[in-house]
Amino acid sequence: MAAVQRRLQISNPNFLSLIIALSLLLVISSAKVIFEERFDDGWESRWVKSDWKKDENMAGEWNYTSGKWNGDASDKGNYIILWVMCTFNKDKALVFQFSVKHEQKLDCGGGYMKLLSGEVDQKKFGGDTPYSIMFGPDICGYSTKKVHAILTRDETNHLIKKDVPCETDQLSHVYTFILRPDATYSILIDNEEKQSGSVYSDWDILPPKQIKDPEAKKPEDWDDKEYIPDPEDKKPEGYDDIPKEIPDTDAKKPEDWDDEEDGEWTAPTIPNPEYKGPWKAKPFLLPENKESQLQGQVDSTIDRQPRHVNLSLAFDYFKDDPDLYVFPKLKYVGIELWQVKSGTLFDNVLVCDDPEYAKKLAEETWGKQKDAEKAAFDEAEKKREEEESKDKPVDSDDEL
Length: 400
Prior knowledge:
By secondary structure, the chain is mainly beta. It is 12% helix and 31% strand. The longest helix has 37 residues, at 355-391. It is flat. One of its GO terms (cellular component) is endoplasmic reticulum membrane. Keywords: Calcium, Chaperone, Disulfide bond, Endoplasmic reticulum, Lectin, Metal-binding, Repeat, Signal, Zinc.
């Protein structure tokens, strides 16, 4: 009998709270792989299912299954897990990766995972439990189809300011979040970079480096116009001689046209595509406005005091944090989400400090199975359509 690939699958909707308890895993500071879960033998000892929402009869259920269509019938996944980690990403990259498949053609619900710090009661882990990083796809209706990348500092959750669309089909996809020691990041889907930038600019974790100068005033000779006609742009020779309309060369004299009665026939005119309207010089950006974004702004550092104080405003100063990328004392990996329809599968969870290893793992798992999974999905869809056509009532006219 062929081996069966299994994955963690939501078999019942509503609130689902699982925490990954990374068993008593010895974490060495120089290790590249901190946690890797492929849901093979022994996975039950590494995961703890939370009782969150159980008393309210709103807790969902999880299955250990290969799903309806798969590329490897031996690959499985299951439960919410908690795991003991350490501050491993100091001076190193933090890579958080997993695969997820919405087999049920998700209408509204999450497919994200979380990294948590501090002490957590695994059996009570849920939506109110503080977390350090939340990452992964979220879908709801037509308006929400995005990848969450939420970073928590000082008990405040900061959402990424850039839009990162997620995949919405019924196949497996790999989501990767990379956070580097220079505070840059990358978000990948299926090993392709979809978004990148800096934590400084793409999250509002720190106050901005520049603020509006409360004493800034517009110079008396300031020109509000950002653009003026370019004085170097000259009207082409013969521009004014171009007619607005030209005879329609495709027009033909009507057969019943009588020159004696109707007069001499002339072809109707059509708009001349060469005519561009009255000539205007190209717009030219005023030199003094090239740096207009900096006008009226000052550095927002802690050592610069404002020249006057407005007591009605809370004045936040920028102070650099060289450890902005560090998330100390990470201990747990958790899956906490809400869904209207069940059927989402999670697999191949990875936390490491090596983006190349994450890429290799994605290629060895998702990369080798995606074509077979797609073929299995297409076959399942074909059978579904055939069954639906059999059950469809036959119109009486079609029988004749």
